[in-house]
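User: Could you walk me through two proteins back to back? I'd like the raw sequence and the structure tokens for each, with a short line separating them so I can tell where one ends and the next begins.

Assistant: Of course. Protein one, sequence then structure:
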Amino acid sequence: MTFFTVFFQMVALLIMIGAGYFITKKGMMDEHTNNQMSVLIVQIFNPLLVLASASNAVGQVSLDTVLLAGGIAAGMFAVFIAAGMVFSPFFEKDLMQRKIFQLMFVFSNVGFIGIPVISSIFGTEYVIYVSEFMLVYTLIFYTYGIALMDGKLTAASCKAMLNPGTVSGLLALAIIIFNIRLPEFLKTAITYLGNITSPMALIAVGFALANSDIRKIFGQPRLYVFSFVKLLLLPLLLLPVIRLVIEDTQLRAVCLVMFGMPVGNMPLILGNQRGLNVTACSAAIILSTVLCVLTVPVLLMFA
């Protein structure tokens, strides 16, 4: 898989982001529409794509490989938590704002962007591995993420772990474990519905870009340094480790791409809920998403 092959696949995703930008600027999409669309992605289409991926992977993907992906995901989050503790003081002096940077290091956009990237480069059957990253993400966010911001772990945060994302991930795991073959008509339906995820998620990114101050996004040098560390440096430092534990070159490439995903929305949402200034976080989300068009092909060259 050459640099330019992957690059042009990433450019296709960038065009979809551009479509969201154009639609928003033309007044065809507003905040209410975007919010409703985001709910549909998170609650309906994303979980269906995970289930479709699992059903299409039955007989092609072994349980050991899926569990290995889950273990790699857990290791990735452990490294990113440590990296956030080490590097965040270099980007922010204020203690509370520094917590936002710690969250930004840890919580990448493994679902919203990860699924479109993995399905476009490798195929939808590889989304089953993404579901493992999403499962671990949810567990880490509602434990470490909440505890970092609040200084404690609450029963409400633990209860929030039960959501459509984790349910679909567990069902996908059950499909692989018990070799469940869904009826063809059902598999076709959930596959078509799940395929809505990628373009809709990227249009939502375009909406965010259209409603942001371009100068604040692309005019902060520290965010370029942050993006370099998160999108390239950390994944490449982890590459020798996954070469040791993963023999399957495709799985290795998928995991490396997941390591290099841009900043996710959850740090922004958590910061907003706590009344923090999330301007830098908002800018980092969009900047890192745009930059991953270049960084993902570079990662795959090494993988």
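----
Protein two, same layout:
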Amino acid sequence: MREKKEKSKQKKNIWPGTIVLALITSIVIYAVMINSEKNALADYEKGSVYVITQDIPKGTLIREDNYPEYFALKEIDKKLVPEKAISTAEQIQNLVASCSIDKGALATLSMFESVNDITKEMKEPVIASFKADDLYQVVGGTLRAGDRIHIYNADEEGIVTLNWSDVYVQQVFDNTGTNIPNDNETSAAQRINVYMDKEDIGEFYTKLATGTLRVVKACD
């Protein structure tokens, strides 16, 4: 009789422990399942990024009115979205392609320069224009938007000095006044627009009128 009571007592003591153990096991399994579900969802998480829809030549200015020609917003695996990806239309405005960009590339900020960055050291940036009557002045007419040029001045004694360095070419035109796109490698640039500081414009046009200015193209 005593043995039966002891066995019954042992069973009663084991039963609460079994319940607690089962409960702990259930909690652990539930946590593992939730974590697995999160990982599975993370594998399918999408991110937004603009994709280049046609080749963008170096120096191309991207504006509000032309960016749909070059960019399309796509949803891709978030793990594949670059750290500096362009993912909003606001990021695209007033950018200049700093290199030739191939169709299908994921757009990143490192592919472009901001117009504000180009002119940030100028007190009052303006666009100056000059005509190349002598093609020697503009490197045989091979300049294109996005190029950097150094402008020299030759005095009466033939001494050449550097007046302006790393001047940014904003746009170039042929002899009919038509804009020359950067993928055109044959047309000669006859009129060139450059970014300059307003305070330098007087000196620039004075020396240009005397025919003493010479231009060299900065190498990439």
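Residues 2-43 form the longest helix (42 residues).

Let me know if you want the two compared in more detail.
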